[in-house]
Amino acid sequence: MNEKINEFRDYRKRMNEKILEKDNLVIKRIFNLDTNTYKEGALSLKTKELIGLTTSLVLRCDDCVKYHLEQCADLKISTEEIMEAMSVSNLVGGTIVIPHLRRAVEYWEILHE
Amino acid sequence: MNEKINEFRDYRKRMNEKILEKDNLVIKRIFNLDTNTYKEGALSLKTKELIGLTTSLVLRCDDCVKYHLEQCADLKISTEEIMEAMSVSNLVGGTIVIPHLRRAVEYWEILHE
Amino acid sequence: MNEKINEFRDYRKRMNEKILEKDNLVIKRIFNLDTNTYKEGALSLKTKELIGLTTSLVLRCDDCVKYHLEQCADLKISTEEIMEAMSVSNLVGGTIVIPHLRRAVEYWEILHE
Amino acid sequence: MNEKINEFRDYRKRMNEKILEKDNLVIKRIFNLDTNTYKEGALSLKTKELIGLTTSLVLRCDDCVKYHLEQCADLKISTEEIMEAMSVSNLVGGTIVIPHLRRAVEYWEILHE
Amino acid sequence: MNEKINEFRDYRKRMNEKILEKDNLVIKRIFNLDTNTYKEGALSLKTKELIGLTTSLVLRCDDCVKYHLEQCADLKISTEEIMEAMSVSNLVGGTIVIPHLRRAVEYWEILHE
Amino acid sequence: MNEKINEFRDYRKRMNEKILEKDNLVIKRIFNLDTNTYKEGALSLKTKELIGLTTSLVLRCDDCVKYHLEQCADLKISTEEIMEAMSVSNLVGGTIVIPHLRRAVEYWEILHE
Fold first, then answer.
1. How much is the average pLDDT of B14-40?
2. What integer pLDDT is reported at residue D98 of this predicted model?
3. What per-residue string of b and e applies to A48-76 under the rule 16 or more CB within 10 Å gives b?
4. pLDDT of residue B2
């Protein structure tokens, strides 16, 4: 596995544990809800992950984008579909989104190496 | 047709015409691109409209949300699917999204009267 | 009770009910969490409401600001304290916050009539 | 003078007075700084007002946009220049800016009636 | 003192000096106001720093969060209080805040090593 | 040429190529429009670049700020003008903009070494 992926996952895992150790009930429930939201339901898991990806992109959160790209890769969503989803974010969010799009495409490629 | 829908559509139509009359090339191309983005492609039109809706919701733009709700209603997307899509926006964007969710649900009901 | 307060509360109450009727689990849990966060804990309820107010103000959500102003009024937080809290939001968030500050001060006065 | 302009100006003036009456030093200094920033300097007042306008537009603050449109009208900035400035905001900020562009163009026309 | 803290402080100090050397009056006054806002007043300094922290967190500015965490550590605010304050930001701002929460908790721990 | 400038330009160039290779029509048209917006017109190129810079700064996108600083340096815009433009962004966007201002001033100095 690529080093950048490992680094990203390790940091997220390690810090999530640190956060949960603090035992704040509200934060623990938000984390728990986060896990339970991205599930098959009236909408397919694929659609929900694409929504997670595109909302993260317009809000310009690189780490959130990376996380959802990982989930999308696991679901075998195609590059063409990912680009089409991200093109909507780019249109809605404007050129300010482009630097985040660069890092998203870079990470998407790393995930497929 | 409900008065609120007509009012919203009339204002949008009238002001879009005013804007395009100003003949600014960049704005005209953005408007044109906006029309051409929400089309069947690698992703279904339905998925793209849901992305348009959910990104608009996390960015908290009531008018954009209303517009995409109209498109979603035309595509016969169910209330359950809309609520599930908007629940992701609510989770990602936080409780600050809730006032916009209220207005979204209100408009969704008006569209189905 | 002032008409503007009633109108605001009625709409919020009515639409919250509509939203909860849709029976989306994620949204219901976010609403539930929202209710449970603003409670006496390591921080006083007063401090938490001031945090709710000031974060809502920098995110420029008028309805959220109004809601927290109501809670602050119930807690007998003084006008001087409210202005001091909102001055931090104004500094952090910049002059773009000022139109929301105007509406906040207007609502604060209505709450004390 | 058009009624909408008067209404906007009266509310702003009245609420600014209310805010300043509260005598919060930080807020008073921000208001004072706001007045002193838009002045001829290394950049022309016209350029600074265009920056005030376009930054307000990407941050999607209708009242701030209206205020700067008033200043731009006073400075006899042409409609073509205003549209060109706002086209940059539209590109940078994306289609989410469009509803605010509609209200900006509407107000610009009212200012020239 | 930990290297990460020193690095952060040195860069901030060095660049603040560079900025102030440019001798722009507006920026100098904003910096001055920033220093003068976080002072004991109608609200305690502790409450104001918590407001600085939580507004910075919902606006997702890592450097601003770090700065206010430093001030909070100096004021001996407890970890439980910090987590409770940040939990409000997490609820209000949504899961998009979580990556910034990770970096905040990491820095908080570094400050207490 | 300074290493930091090269690194920034190389990454942008390389990733832009990767993105365009994906051949998504909407994204290609946004990139094309981005190139075509910053041109002499009713407003001077200098004014448009200053608008690009200041809107990027209030939206707090470091890479966009860097890009426009490069263009401003090419246009021989003076440090005093740049600081005055950025002071408006700082006022409008608040102290949350300051960490981005630090990085902007750092990059501006690197561009002039």
1. 97
2. 98
3. bbbbbbbbbbbbbbbbbbbbbbbbbbeee
4. 87
Asked whether the beta carbons of residue B99 and residue C64 sit closer than 8 angstroms, the reply is: yes
E99 and A56 Cβ atoms separated by less than 8 Å:
no
CA distance linking residue C84 with residue C57, whole number of Å: 13
Q: State the maximum Cα–Cα separation within chain A, in Å, rounded to a whole number.
A: 42
Domain E41-113 has CATH 1.20.1290.10: yes
Q: Which residues between 33 and 92 in chain F have a beta carbon less than 8 angstroms from any beta carbon of chain C?
A: 58, 90-92
Angle, CA F19 vertex, CA F13 and CA F23 arms, to 5°: 130
Burial of E1-22, coded b for 16+ CB within 10 Å and e otherwise, reads eeeebeebeeebeebeeebeeb
Which pLDDT tens digits describe chain F residue by residue (113 residues)?
A: 689 999 999 999 999 999 999 999 999 999 999 999 999 999 999 999 999 999 999 999 999 999 999 999 999 999 999 999 999 999 999 999 999 999 999 999 999 99
The model's pLDDT over D7-55, given as tens digits with 9 standing for 90+, comes to: 999 999 999 999 999 999 999 999 999 999 999 999 999 999 999 999 9
Comparing CA positions, the residue from C87, C75, C80, C79 lying closest to residue C109 is C79
- Cβ atoms within 10 Å, residue F76: 8
pTM for this prediction: 0.98
Question: Terminus-to-terminus CA distance in chain D, angstroms?
Answer: 9
Helices and strands, number each (H, E), in chain E: 6, 0
> Contact C90/F93, CB-based, under 8 Å?
no
Please provide the average confidence, as pLDDT, over all residues in chain C. 97
Q: Which residues neighbour F52 within 8 Å (Cβ) at sequence distance 6 or greater?
A: D88, D92, F38, F64, F68, F71
- Mean of per-residue pLDDT scores for chain E: 97
In the CATH scheme, what is the code of domain F3-111? 1.20.1290.10
CA distance F104 to F85: 12
D112: which residues sit within 8 A by CB, 6+ positions away? D73, D79
Interface test mutation site (partner F, options E61, E68, E100, E107, max chain F beta carbons within 10 A): E61
Distance CA B91, CA B88 (A): 5
Confidence of residue A1 (pLDDT cuts 50, 70, 90): low
Do the Cβ atoms of C102 and D59 come within 8 Å? no
The residues spanned by each domain of chain A are 3-111
Would you report the helix, strand and coil content of chain E in percent, each value rounded to 5? 80, 0, 20
The shortest C-alpha distance from E7 to chain C (Å) reads: 24
Do the chains contact at C50 and E59, CB–CB below 8 Å? no
Q: Determine the Cα–Cα distance for residues A79 and B43; give it in Å rounded to an integer.
A: 11
Query: Taking Cα atoms as reference points, which of A4, E67, F48, A68 lies closest to residue B54?
Result: A68
Query: Which residue of F58, F92, F94 is in closest CB contact with C91?
Result: F94
Q: How far apart are CA C94 and CA B75, in angstroms?
A: 41
pLDDT band at A2 (very low <50, low <70, confident <90, very high): confident
- Asked if F52's CB is within 8 angstroms of D88's CB, the reply is yes
* Cα(B88)–Cα(B94) distance, integer angstroms: 10
